[in-house]
Design brief:
Helix content is 35%, strand content 20%. Strands 1, 2, 3, 4, 5, 6, 14, 15, 16, 17, 18 and 19 form a twelve-stranded mixed β-sheet that branches. Strands 20-22-23-21 form a four-stranded mixed β-sheet. β1 and β2 form a beta hairpin. The longest helix has 21 residues.
């Protein structure tokens, strides 16, 4: 069996200009990054504003397991299937982070015959957007420390600096550090921290800003520290906004690439859904809606994280109205939730399937709370049996969900036709009555409790003394009307990654709260979730190499 990278490297790609031409993009509207990838120009994005919107389809999934779910694979395969049916569709995805590529997850270009390409370039440096975010973030950090060194005119309290440096790599040694060691000229000694680039507020701002003007407004609002009077100090106060914008100017433009079957894909922005808002950029989604009759986008990790944040943060901020949701599951993952060990997942086990399907059931119920029609798809594996597939189909249909089998990994777009037809049928027959989970007028604490109890299934929420104090401060500063971004482990509906299936009545712990004023949301750290991951004992980097001909091997 061929690996994903072997399939991608054997593919015959079209010049990106030809892909663009088929959806009405002229060569003058592209900014080329080699033969097979390009950015959309500001002039082209401006020209789309008066065009009607297509249908917005979100792809999400159950909680991730070691058995695999295939959310991106399904998104890509569905887009290819729309093309097979003669429908005009554009896929809108997030860019992969280097950290997971060299860590445990691997790439994020899809899989099998449902991939976006060139996959090696996408999974590595791509068009440099992540480097731009990292540079803008760390420029602000450098200007903050320099201001303190040069006399601290803003009276910044060095005990209340909240801005962190970032790096697009899993590096646990950078979580908690000390800077300024050495002589007096080397800066003020203080504790500092790193987050992974995808968790930076700059990444969230890049993904939520509508244009350069909005980008600058959001950058200006970033709170970096508090002064001795307890008042916020912003990026605007440090006079950093113009230089940061200069670094982000090109990164603001969505990237155009293609699938293995030459379906256009906009890949832009990359926040993780377990520690950030987990969606691709508003600019890319809006552009895709104007460029085609159907925009297929995805949100990170399980629906409890990615889909909730897509609905309650991205759609709220950008005024988006999703028309349908595709919920991805696998028989293997459901049996894993039912207690089967990974090595035994290939054997038929209806009892474990019935036990583990409660995870899927909870996600269905959650998505239906938003008023958007749901289509459940099983990402097919050769070990799935007819009895197992029939059970899941009946289970879904009895809960007012459409159901379709997806074979896109093996067959590409052809394997997604049944799913595409079911999505088209749903769009035609079922009206979306989208509504967010909570109103802006609730307190921040009430919003967090609403997500925890209604989406995760918690019985109660406890707040640390520090979190209570932070909430009070944030609301006093006027940020109480913002949506909340819950940072939680992705493996369980709860804040305990070991609780599989459908845990209920547990206590969720909020240990820290801070405001991302530029992004426009308040972050709640729950359980032991980390904003800077570490590498596993045997990182994926061990298997990555370049052969004598310059071909990358072992990437995925």
């Amino acid at each position: 069996m061929k690996t994903d990278i072997e399939i991608a490297q054997e593919a015959v790609l079209e010049p990106i200009g030809k892909v663009a031409e088929r959806i009405g993009i002229a060569e003058k509207d592209l900014e080329y990054y080699g033969k097979y990838k390009a950015k959309l120009s500001e002039e082209y994005l401006e020209s789309l504003k008066d065009k009607p919107d297509g249908k917005l389809i979100l792809v999400t999934a159950i909680n991730p397991t070691p058995a695999g779910e295939g959310k991106t694979t399904t998104s890509v395969g569905l887009g290819q299937a729309f093309g097979k049916l003669g429908k005009k569709a554009v896929i809108a995805l997030r860019e992969p982070s280097l950290g997971p590529c060299f860590g445990i997850k691997g790439g994020a270009a899809g899989g099998g015959y449902a991939q976006v390409v060139p996959m090696e370039e996408l999974n590595l440096h791509f068009t440099g957007d992540f480097h731009a975010v990292t540079s803008a973030n760390n420029l602000l950090a450098a200007m903050l420390d320099n201001h303190i060194q040069q006399g601290n005119e803003l009276n910044i309290d060095t005990r209340q600096i909240i801005w962190k440096r970032c790096e697009d790599m899993n590096d646990r040694a950078l979580r908690n550090i000390v800077v300024g060691l050495g002589s007096k000229a080397d800066g003020f000694v203080r504790e500092d921290h790193f987050v992974i680039t995808v968790a930076s507020e700059i990444m969230a701002i890049l993904c939520l800003a509508s244009d350069i003007k909005d980008l600058k407004k959001r950058l200006a609002r970033i709170i970096v520290a508090y002064n001795y009077a307890g008042e916020p100090v912003t990026a605007e106060d440090l006079q950093a906004v113009g230089a940061m914008t200069a670094l982000l100017k090109d990164a603001m433009k969505p990237n155009l690439i293609q699938t293995l079957e030459h379906t256009p894909a906009l890949v832009h922005g990359g926040p993780f859904a377990n520690i950030a808002h987990g969606c691709n950029s508003v600019r890319a989604t809006r552009a895709a809606l104007k460029m085609a009759d159907y925009c297929i986008t995805e949100a990170g990790f399980g629906a409890d994280l990615g889909a909730e944040k897509f609905f309650d943060i991205k759609c709220r901020i950008a005024g988006l109205h999703p028309d349908a949701v595709v919920l991805v599951a696998t028989v293997r993952a459901l049996k894993y939730n039912g207690g089967v060990e990974k090595e035994d997942l290939g054997a038929e086990n209806l009892d474990a399937l019935k036990k583990g399907i409660v995870n899927l059931e909870k996600h269905i119920e959650n998505l239906q709370k938003y008023g958007v029609p749901v289509v459940v798809t099983l990402n097919s594996f050769v070990t799935d049996t007819p009895a197992e597939i029939a059970y899941v189909k009946k289970f879904c249909e009895s809960r007012n969900c459409e159901f379709a089998l997806s074979e896109v990994w093996e067959k590409g777009g052809e394997g997604g036709i049944a799913l595409a037809q079911k999505v088209l049928e749903t769009l035609e027959k079922k009206e979306s009555r989208f509504r967010p989970l909570y109103e802006d007028g609730l307190s921040l604490r009430e919003k967090m409790e609403t997500v925890a109890t209604q989406i995760y299934g918690a019985g109660s929420v406890s707040f640390s003394a520090a979190a209570i104090k932070q909430l009070k401060k944030i609301e006093e500063l006027g940020f109480g009307s913002l949506p909340v971004c819950m940072a939680k482990n992705q493996y369980s509906l709860s804040d305990d990654p070991k609780l599989l299936g459908r845990p209920q009545g547990f206590e969720l712990t909020v240990r820290e709260v801070y405001v991302s004023a530029g992004a426009g949301f308040v972050v709640a750290l729950t359980g032991e979730v980390m904003t800077m991951p570490g590498l596993p004992k045997k990182p994926a980097a061990h298997n990555i190499d370049v052969d004598d001909k310059g071909v990358i091997i072992g990437l995925f």
